[in-house]
Write a structure and sequence with these properties.
By secondary structure, the protein is mainly alpha-helical. 92% of the residues lie in helices and 0% in strands. The longest helix is centred in the middle third of the chain and has 91 residues, at 14-104.
Amino acid sequence: MLGRFQARRGTDDPQVAARRAAREAVAAARTLRLAGREAERAAQEAARIAREAEADAEQARQREIAAAEETQRAAEAALTAEARLAEQKAARDARYAARKARQRG
């Protein structure tokens, strides 16, 4: 057992140093790939959030337009109703005036 331990190459051996450098290079490449993937995910998430914000803004604009149109329709309906009431009052007043004229005349 001691022989196997003593037979191991030391840290100053060029082959051991080359294998260690290769492992470190692979680890660094893995770290770079992971960082790249994370950056890509972050960019996709930012793009998704931007698209959602744009869609929300468009929906809000559409709701605002619909509310303005509804307000305009309500105002027009109120004006129409007011005009109809004024016409009915004018007709009623004319009938009243005609009835009074017949009673006097």
